[in-house]
Amino acid sequence: MLYPQRLRALREDNDLTQRDVAEVIKTTPQYYQKYERGIRPLPVDRLILLADFYHTSTDYILGRTNDPSFHKKD
């Protein structure tokens, strides 16, 4: 699964609108929509904000793992 699909799934699983998520990552709904559709690349700083917001790892959002749990290293 590519990150645009993962972004949409996370948003929908949390019953959020694109506007809701855009506010969290401090961007416009139009820009967020482009991230979710794969039209614009997702900047690293916004990727980190999304991972923190959804309490998951950046690897999960990027599709590098299918484990959504966050494993914090000490």
Automatic annotation (TrEMBL):
Domain HTH cro/C1-type stretches: 7-61
PROSITE patterns reported for this sequence: HTH_CROC1 (PS50943)
GO MF terms, alphabetically ordered: DNA binding
InterPro entries in the record: Cro/C1-type_HTH, Lambda_DNA-bd_dom_sf
Superkingdom of source: Bacteria
Official protein name in the record: XRE family transcriptional regulator
Species this chain originates from: Anaerotruncus massiliensis
